[in-house]
Amino acid sequence: MAFVLPDLPYQHDALADLGMSKETLEFHHDLHHKAYVDNGNKLISGTEWENKSLEEIIVGTYNPTSVAQNGIFNNISQLWNHNQFWEMMGPSGKKMPSNLELKINDSFGSVDKFKEEFCAAGVGQFGSGWCWLVQEADGGLKITKTENGVNPLCFNQKALLGCDVWEHSYYIDFRNKRPVYLKNFLDNLVNWENVAERL
């Protein structure tokens, strides 16, 4: 069964007033994300992974000893990452639910401290990659960063929030100002209700 490009959960211009333009979403979703879907389907066709779930393919093809992952992993992992990314943002859901705020305060000391550490992880990711708020198997929260398409599934973690720090995610709107993009992501774009539902 071939994977398909999911529709955005909002219109392409829904985030424009919040710092992510229609043009960015047209390039990022309609071109970049679609390429991961198309390439991933081609690469798994006729292989042992053809009828597996995204999650099974990611875990099964990840190589923890190599930064340079194989083509199947790279495309399928990025397909999954972007599926999550669009859901983690939205034009509504700006108020952080109390259960999530309590968990973040317990884990990081304050919401402001969490945002500071999350931004630092994104800024500190050299080259392309992601920064994440994850929940460990023991229930604890942690901020991580991963190179290229690597994601929390590779480490048996649950992705609560992820921010794409590949240049295609922010260069149209923020040029080379990755720190400004990250701050805007947390302040204006995150759907905190979606994040809380992942706990």
Task: Give a short summary of the structure.
The chain is mainly alpha-helical. The chain contains 8 helices and 3 strands. Strands 2-1-3 form a 3-stranded antiparallel sheet.
Describe this structure in words.
The chain is mainly α and 199 residues long. The chain has two domains: 68 residues, Helix Hairpins (Orthogonal Bundle); 100 residues, minor pseudopilin epsh fold, CATH 3.55.40.20. The chain is 48% helix and 11% strand. The chain contains eight helices and three strands. It has a three-stranded antiparallel beta sheet with strand order 2-1-3. Helix 1 packs antiparallel against helix 3 and helix 2 packs across helix 3. It is globular, with a radius of gyration of 16 Å. The relative contact order is 0.16. The model has no long low-confidence stretch (mean pLDDT 97).
